[in-house]
Task: inverse folding
């Protein structure tokens, strides 16, 4: 039963042909068989999941997610499970409350199986920066899952949960979804509450689903979206039924192809898969138009100033006083701060704190942070102008399929540059998705990115659903034990 | 502008990080590469461009100034490495 989608399992549950306990048992068995290879779970709560499933079986379903076992990225606070952010500085930390999205899943009756691996504090593009274990791509041993929500993508692709929640600051949902062949959505900035999401870069972070298909993605969005008074950046705006957007045919939809996203460094197989996908969208009735996003080449530079600047401020709270690791032997307060942080943070986190602190420090603020925030306006304007001529934009998610672990070990800039196609959506605050659309010759998944105007999630889902039906690969599964 | 070991040491002090001499060497080299790359932004004239710090049109999110239930003290203290039931305990400051 582990291979089913949420909507398939829902039908069996509603017909009384299975129970939540049976679903949880099936997924736990699946986890036992695939986990030695994919290493997605940092924490698995078997007893808690079975107890919640029993309760769900005795209760009345109030949501399509009722009784469905899910996982969540370890950056989301859970009051009954550790929340480590993949960092030694939060090892063993059990938060005093649930994140709003976790609370929403629980009140919908969903079952939380456990917490999945990620790059430390969501900083990375491969999940190799996780301090505890590095998840592996279910499609090919020794290959990265992508990141930072790599545990979520691996667990969904390997049927080790029905779906997962991730977070996306510069592509951290879409990129691993693409590299592992799952659907992933980063909603519009403000659409989903971030209360209880451990903050990385507050003007960029969004929470969203990684799912086995587009319909499941829409079902989860129905549960997550909405205003939360505890997150002042969440928007008070009606939430549609996202599943209603899943209708056949794309007549009347104008789809833009930005040539800047098909530039130098794009793998020929990725290019071909995306071009084939565009042809499918056209066959489904969409009109394909060329558009320009002229400032795309600046997005990596903008992002790698703004995100570290915000991170250097957000991560100041990890000082050993209130939670997590403390250097107990330190004799003065200042030594305690310094030793705690130096022992607790990994290299990539230190690197970004240093870049961010530098970019914000006296004498450099105008040249770096302010300049980047101005170019961010130009990038945002590019999208606003593009969306006057089309309803959504299609492109690759990543320039290449998944690569071997260890590839960029000592070259952080090379890895940062691989984020070039996903970063702009966060800078502009627009919704974006990854949808599986093909495979490379060595069997690695390739995802298509869809980007829409603010709050155009329904347009994205409709196009994604049509692409999924035309591509006909949603039943392709990785070969696992 | 070339990033030096001294730049990195200064920023590490500000960020409350202790770096080993080896870490300072590596970080200096990597920060220099990264900051040389971001200098690409200087190609653009942004003199008349406003900054974007936030992508929603909201200006302020006000709420009523009313007292609501908040985190109980024992829960707030529960995850602290050292506490005395009333407060977080840290090394002596003065």
Result:
């Amino acid at each position: 039963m582990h291979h089913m989608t949420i909507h398939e399992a829902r039908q069996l549950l509603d017909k009384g042909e299975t129970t939540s306990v049976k679903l949880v048992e099936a997924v736990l068995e699946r986890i036992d068989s695939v986990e030695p290879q994919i290493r997605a779970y940092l924490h698995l709560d078997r007893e808690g999941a079975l107890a919640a499933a029993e309760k769900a079986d005795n209760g009345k379903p109030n949501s399509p997610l009722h009784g469905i076992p899910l996982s969540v990225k370890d950056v989301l606070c859970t009051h009954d499970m550790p929340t480590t952010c993949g960092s030694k500085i939060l090892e063993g930390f059990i938060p005093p409350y649930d994140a709003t999205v976790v609370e929403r899943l629980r009140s919908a009756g969903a079952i939380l199986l456990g917490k999945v691996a990620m790059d430390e504090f969501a900083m990375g593009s491969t999940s190799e920066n996780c301090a505890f274990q590095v998840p592996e791509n279910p499609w090919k041993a020794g290959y990265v899952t992508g990141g930072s929500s790599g545990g979520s993508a691996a667990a969904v692709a390997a049927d080790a949960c029905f779906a997962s929640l991730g977070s996306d600051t510069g592509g951290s949902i879409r990129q691993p979804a693409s590299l592992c062949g799952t659907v992933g959505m980063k909603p519009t900035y403000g659409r989903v509450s971030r209360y209880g999401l451990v903050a990385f870069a507050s003007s960029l972070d969004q929470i969203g689903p990684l799912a086995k298909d587009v319909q499941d993605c829409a079902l989860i969005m129905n549960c997550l979206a909405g205003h939360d008074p505890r997150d002042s950046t969440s928007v008070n705006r009606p939430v549609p039924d996202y599943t209603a957007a899943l209708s056949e045919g794309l007549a009347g939809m104008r789809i833009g192809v930005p040539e800047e996203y098909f530039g130098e460094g794009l793998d020929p197989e990725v290019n071909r898969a995306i071009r084939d996908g565009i042809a499918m969208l056209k066959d489904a009735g969409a009109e394909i138009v060329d558009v320009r996003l002229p400032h795309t080449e600046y997005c990596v530079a903008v992002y790698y100033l703004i995100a570290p600047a915000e991170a250097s401020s957000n991560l100041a709270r990890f000082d050993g006083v209130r939670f997590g690791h403390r250097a107990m032997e330190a004799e003065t307060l200042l030594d305690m701060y310094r030793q705690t942080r130096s022992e607790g943070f990994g290299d990539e986190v230190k690197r970004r704190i240093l870049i961010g602190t530098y970019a914000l420090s006296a004498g450099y603020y105008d040249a770096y942070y302010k300049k980047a925030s101005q170019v961010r306006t130009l990038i945002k304007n590019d999208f606003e102008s593009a969306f006057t001529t089309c309803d959504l934009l299609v492109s690759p998610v990543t320039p290449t399929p998944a690569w071997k672990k260890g590839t960029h070990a000592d070259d952080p800039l090379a890895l940062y540059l691989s984020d070039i196609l996903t970063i702009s959506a966060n800078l502009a605050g627009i919704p974006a998705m990854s949808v599986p659309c093909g495979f490379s010759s060595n069997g690695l998944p390739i995802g298509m990115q869809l980007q829409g105007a603010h709050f155009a999630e329904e347009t994205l889902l409709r196009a994604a659903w049509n692409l999924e039906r035309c591509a006909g690969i949603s039943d392709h599964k990785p070969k696992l034990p | 502008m070339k990033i030096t070991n001294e730049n990195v040491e200064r920023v590490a002090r500000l960020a409350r990080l202790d770096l080993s001499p080896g870490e300072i060497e590596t970080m200096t080299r990597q920060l220099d590469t990264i900051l040389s790359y971001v200098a690409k932004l200087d190609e653009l004239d942004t003199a008349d461009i406003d900054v974007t710090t936030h992508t929603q049109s909201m200006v302020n999110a006000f709420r009523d100034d009313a007292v609501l239930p908040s985190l109980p003290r024992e829960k707030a203290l529960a995850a602290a490495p050292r506490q005395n039931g009333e407060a977080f305990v840290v090394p002596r400051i003065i």
